[in-house]
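Risk mitigation, structural track. In case the binding assays with magnesium ion fail to produce interpretable data, a predicted complex structure has been prepared as a fallback.
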Amino acid sequence: MSYRVSSMSVLPPVRKDRIIAELPKCYSKDAALHTKDEFTKKVRTACQEQRTGTVGFKISKVIVVGDLAVGKTCLINRFCKDAFDKNYKATIGVDFEMERFEVLGVPFSLQLWDTAGQERFKCIASTYYRGAQTVIIVFDVNDVASLSHTKQWLIDAMKENDPTNIQIFLVGTKKDLSSPAQYALMEKDAIKVAQEMKAEYWALSSLTGENVKEFFFRVATLAFEANLLAELEKSGTRQIADIVKINSNSNNLNAASKKKQTNCCQ
Ligand SMILES: Nc1nc2c(ncn2[C@@H]2O[C@H](COP(=O)(O)OP(=O)(O)OP(=O)(O)O)[C@@H](O)[C@H]2O)c(=O)[nH]1
Ligand SMILES: [Mg+2]
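Fallback model:
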């Protein structure tokens, strides 16, 4: 499956609630990919001067993995559709959503791949791991077993990807079901796991929505920053933005974004 975002495509403006103008903060300074308070001058200046090369045309792949029923699908649905379903419907194989952002005035898209946690669908889901820039490993903060399985999920995701170019997030879900005391106890272990994985730690609730938007803003921004810094490393970055002006009036990318559900593999 492929997306074509050509210079001729005309996209609607990015939703107002997907515009990122400030650097989103990490959840815990003890387990963060970085702890800066603001965008660096280098990043800001490049965006202001439109020296962003191909970054504004990129679709960055994010894979979401973790045990069955920890809440991967609910997390994506809360962010992308502002919806929550109490009933469990197992993901069969994979599913994906597109989200368009604007970071410091530059368009940037995430392709969020929701994978199945059930063992019997794992073989099909893992064929979609390749080419990810971000891995989100999800566990349930009320289920220690799901936390202990996160390392195996990481190993599996890394088999298909280049470890030097990937950003890892460890995300505890269903925070609403945990008392503050229970949560505090669990968090110590989770932060330790995140540190070992070199992951950034988050805890959130798809039921209440707590931290969901903050989390995805952080994911989008860190993926954007990494792309931009890589682009700036390359010499002679062309000022594509000067050559190609995207007309932001018509057509809907969503219309072009087809859903894929795969039946599989027993
Ligand atoms: N209370 C509460 N329940 C949640 C939360 N997130 C998910 N759930 C519930 O947990 C169950 C599983 O959620 P899913 O999102 O389908 O789990 P999944 O990780 O996608 O599962 P697979 O697709 O099988 O891998 C559902 O019944 C959800 O309603 C949350 O933040 N709080
Ligand atoms: Mg699911």
